[in-house]
Amino acid sequence: MKHPAARREQACLFPTSGWREFSLIEAIRKISAASGSKDRLGIGDDASAHCPEPGCLELVTCDALIEGIHWEWAWCDPETLGRKAAAVNVSDIAAMGGVPRRAHLVLALPPGAKEKRVLGVVSGLVAELKKYGARLVGGDTNASPGPWMISLTLQGTVAEKHLLRRSGARAGDWLMVTGDLGGAAAGLYEVKHSRSPLRLISYAAQRLRSPIPRLAEARWLAQTGRVHALLDVSDGLASDVRRLCEAGRVGACLYAGHLPVAMDTRRMAKKMKQPAWTVALQGGEDYELLFAVKPQDAPALCRKMQARLGTACTLVGEVVPASQGLTLALPEGKMIKLPAGWEHNREVHG
Amino acid sequence: MKHPAARREQACLFPTSGWREFSLIEAIRKISAASGSKDRLGIGDDASAHCPEPGCLELVTCDALIEGIHWEWAWCDPETLGRKAAAVNVSDIAAMGGVPRRAHLVLALPPGAKEKRVLGVVSGLVAELKKYGARLVGGDTNASPGPWMISLTLQGTVAEKHLLRRSGARAGDWLMVTGDLGGAAAGLYEVKHSRSPLRLISYAAQRLRSPIPRLAEARWLAQTGRVHALLDVSDGLASDVRRLCEAGRVGACLYAGHLPVAMDTRRMAKKMKQPAWTVALQGGEDYELLFAVKPQDAPALCRKMQARLGTACTLVGEVVPASQGLTLALPEGKMIKLPAGWEHNREVHG
To answer: Regarding beta strands A313-321 and A174-178, do their DSSP bridges make them parallel or antiparallel, or are they unpaired?
Structure first.
């Protein structure tokens, strides 16, 4: 939706000459069509249309990436950014136990946005969606008075019996996470303090730029029927365990010394002058899975996931009654109230 | 999706103190719940979920409003803006013959965004959705380094037999529009040249701020089974007739002297020093319906729509073979090539 009158009065706000909305939509349609869209109606009408499958739930999620908040061009190339915009949304569909299907993209482009960059973003996004079986089927292009904005709405489906909720954790459950934590936060520190951040290919920088949604792991976990509650760790473990506990009306105790942290993240944590566990606890954008299972189910689940998918699981805490609140067992054994997130982090850790 | 590390380093970018993502989501959830959401899963998990109805197509559309491009706070209050964000999306679902069902909202808020303003936008949006039978069921909140951004994704449904496409117009069809054109463009000029634009309650200013999606009209037209092609006029008649013709591989001749223009729009056109028909032809955001029907069906359709819904329809042109291209019959009788839109408008009309 664009106001032509606004466009006229602010012609300079619209992308570079030759970049009209229609040609941009046409270019996006071509990139998307190359990935094999077979929808009843895709890009090019007032709305896209498809026939939902019978017998399953439809899922919808949306996540936006905004220049200057979520990324800087100094440390992320267009294709990688497009891939990330897709991946973070796929992660949300995965965290419901579903598979991603159809995406709608809203772009806001600053004056002078280069064709190559725009198409790079779209190409990366379409390629990443395709990797997980999803397609770009519609969207909206806009001028922006300043920052780039990439807002994706992703629809997915899940058999009702495989739906993974945030609620459902029970006192006594173990809290597990896949993979390792804190990498993206370490990577953000690293790219911000690097002289050539675009060329950085450290583990931490890759975790920041190229998150890998745990789609196969979540699907597999959903099919075991053993998971009481699950979500993806997008805002940091401290924030997300709080969400899981609020949804399930339970408390939790996390073990700081147990949090899985990669070697490269430990290296960066030293430069950040923070214990590795605080980076793991409060860094965001890890897109790992946090889930609650019965203690007796946990060992077999971990062993099988490792064997089938090559993904490690770590016990990071346990679910307790709501009355006990949210606590953190420090590596030296002391128990403290769980820090609330980055805002409180400053109070707790200076 | 928010990067906590980014949030920490750019704490000033996040809304006013006390405004955390969670409390904002909670407030949005409350506003939305008050409108009676009954989804399988609404706001508060990784994705929303619902059971699609069998035997019908699902429609999805998204349209964003961006501060400085689509509106200025100087001339639009928060509730009205929220209503508009809903209305422009409802218009797209209507233009497919569907009814709106479920919406996802992505907000990007600049530093210091006021609670009252944010909740005003959300309240207006939820109220407007409710008016048309739809609900807010999910979304994403973000910091913005500058402008406000309100991006809505709206899902709807339509029985396949009632689907209204852009394609399907045939040579010989009449081109009809509902209501009148150019009001929003005239309103934009008016608010931009007013000393107290927020208080302006002229017809043109209202057309700009408070578009009324033609949902009932589109539904009724869809059910007649007489419409060959239809879309909503969001970017201006000149642009949108081009879309209809490209989709249907036909040409068209529009009659400048026939375009329906309200008295207030004519008044503003004089101030704009443009013939009223150029404002009607090239102004955007009218959200009227443009549709193609057989000449013999048109009179009865217009009469019945007027009688049932109180909405006038006007003959504005005819569909011709593609080889004849897009032309405009000027009021004085001369035929010219149809101006392509605002960009070309400057060349054509100085």
So the answer is: antiparallel
The SS3 assignment for A302 reads helix
**Contact state of B62 with A138 under an 8 Å Cβ cutoff:** yes
Contact list, A76 vs chain B (CB under 8 Å): none
Domains, in order of start, for chain A: 6-36+53-162 (3.30.1330.10), 174-349 (3.90.650.10)
| Chain B residues in contact with A59 (beta carbon < 8 A) | 47-49
Q: A308 pLDDT exceeds 80?
A: yes
Looking at residue B21, what is its pLDDT?
58
Supply the mean pLDDT for chain A: 87
| Per-residue tokens: B296 | 């013999």
Structure tokens at B201: 């309650």
Partner-chain contact A138 B282, CB within 8 Å: no
Interface confidence, given as ipTM, is 0.84
CB atoms within 10 A of CB B74: 11
Kindly report which listed range (A85-94, B39-48, B117-126) carries the lowest average pLDDT score: B39-48
Query: How close B279 gets to chain A, by Cα (Å)?
Result: 9
Per-residue pLDDT for B42 more than 70? Answer: no
Q: Dihedral of the CA atoms A203, A207, A210, A212 (nearest 10)?
A: 110
The 10s digit of each residue's pLDDT in A54-90 is 668 889 999 999 999 999 999 999 999 999 999 999 9
Give which of B230, B256, B242, B270 is closest to B316, Cα–Cα. B256
How do A326-329 and A335-337 pair as beta strands?
antiparallel
**Could A50 and B69 be called an inter-chain contact, meaning their C-beta atoms sit closer than 8 Å?**
no
Is the CB of B61 less than 8 angstroms away from the CB of A48? yes
Average pLDDT, whole number, for chain B? 87
**pLDDT (average), residues B79-102:** 96
- Which residue out of A7, A16, A46, A104 would a mutagenesis test of the B interface target, given it has the greatest number of B Cβ atoms within 10 Å? A46
CA-angle at A75, arms to A196 and A345, nearest 5°: 110
Chain B residues with CB inside 8 Å of A72's CB? none
Contact between A4 and B239 using a beta-carbon 8 Å cutoff: yes
B283 in Cβ contact with A5 (< 8 Å): yes
pLDDT of residue B52: 62
DSSP 8-state assignment for residue A53: P
Q: Which residue has the tokens 């965001």?
A: A284
Lowest mean pLDDT among A200-209, A220-229, A236-245, B136-145: B136-145
β-strand A326-329 against A250-255: which pairing, if any? parallel
CA within 13 Å, CB half, B90: 30
pLDDT score of A58: 87
Query: Where does the pLDDT of residue A315 fall: very low under 50, low under 70, confident under 90, or very high at 90 and above?
Result: very high
Beta strands per DSSP E along chain B? 48-50, 56-66, 99-109, 135-143, 149-159, 174-178, 229-233, 250-255, 288-293, 313-321, 326-329, 335-337
